[in-house]
Amino acid sequence: MLSRRGGVGFRDVEAPRSGCSVLVPDRSSIAAASIAAVSSLPAAASRPGASDAGGSGAGNLGVLLADPVLRAVTVRRLELLGYQVTLLPEDPAAAPVVAADEGVHGVLIDLDLPDGAGLRIVERLASEDATAALPVLGLATDTPQGLVEEAFAAGVADFLILPYDPLVLEAKAAGLLTTSAAS
Prior knowledge:
Elements: E1 2-5, E2 8-14, E3 21-25, H1 27-39, E4 60-64, H2 68-80, E5 84-87, H3 94-101, E6 106-110, H4 117-127, E7 136-140, H5 145-154, E8 156-161, H6 166-182
Parallel strand pairs: 4-5, 4-6, 6-7, 7-8
Antiparallel strand pairs: 1-2, 2-3
Helix pairs in contact: 1-2
């Protein structure tokens, strides 16, 4: 039996030893409810005190995150801070082209993409004339020393560990644009 509470679906599951019925949340409905909740927040332009001039929200950030919930939450958070967000493709050849065409000022990229695609995209961004100066924030669930060294060698300017604190995301995004403006 599936029931809904607060937009999240629950199903009754019988506990093996006790025989008691337990409500277990349905994972797909949690993801859908999270995206719906974040999407219902007002945009930066409609928030009191939101400003595009010189604030932390001035700029266009390219975002490439594999997880759809994390991507939706991160994009919405950046939009609430006043940033324009451009979603980048996972194709290492296409990502620099899209970043250059859309006038991206900095990039947030998932370093946990399959087959090392995240690092390959960072390398391509650094090797293309139009995107070589873009600062890159690498996001990863774990940062072993080898990954950190490879990422810095590829062109990552800073790291953000997943799951992240929204205030840390805000500070690091603003730092990216400061780095971008200085170059």
